[in-house]
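wait is this the right file?? whatever heres the structure
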């Protein structure tokens, strides 16, 4: 390469880059050089592009699949929890084992109201008997 008086000398790296740009085969070591046909170059480029795309697109897709699996597992776990609670409720509510879920809920509401009335009655009786005991003490009994 001759340098004329009007050209400035090129740095070595810039000259090497230009040569590589003009002849890409220079970039690979001579022991690995192979003749590559243009169609094969396109196939390689296409394959490499597909691989890079699949890496970028598969990761979110795989992550989404994992999220769906976790959702399904979560729903199955919730369903098992609900079934266990219904089973417990059937044992607590008198006659609950023979009831369907809708009727079980109605009976549960009625049973809760019944228990609340029983609590009020017991408090009233407790208050009544405490009053009787105080009166008996006052009278010296």
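ok assuming it is, sequence goes like this
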């Amino acid at each position: 390469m001759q340098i004329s008086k009007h050209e400035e000398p090129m740095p070595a790296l810039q000259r090497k880059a230009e040569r590589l740009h003009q002849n890409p085969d220079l970039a690979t070591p001579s022991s690995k050089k192979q003749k590559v046909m243009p169609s094969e170059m396109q196939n390689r480029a296409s394959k490499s592009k597909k691989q890079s795309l699949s890496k970028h697109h598969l990761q979110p897709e795989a992550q989404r699949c994992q999220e769906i699996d976790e959702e399904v597992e979560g729903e199955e776990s919730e369903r098992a929890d609900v079934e266990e609670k219904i089973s417990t409720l059937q044992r607590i509510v008198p006659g609950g084992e023979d009831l369907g879920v809708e009727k079980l809920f109605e009976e549960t509401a009625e049973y809760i109201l019944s228990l609340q009335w029983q609590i009020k009655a017991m408090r009233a009786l407790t208050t009544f008997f405490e009053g009787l005991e105080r009166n008996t003490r006052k009278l010296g009994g």
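The mean pLDDT is 76. so i think its the right one actually
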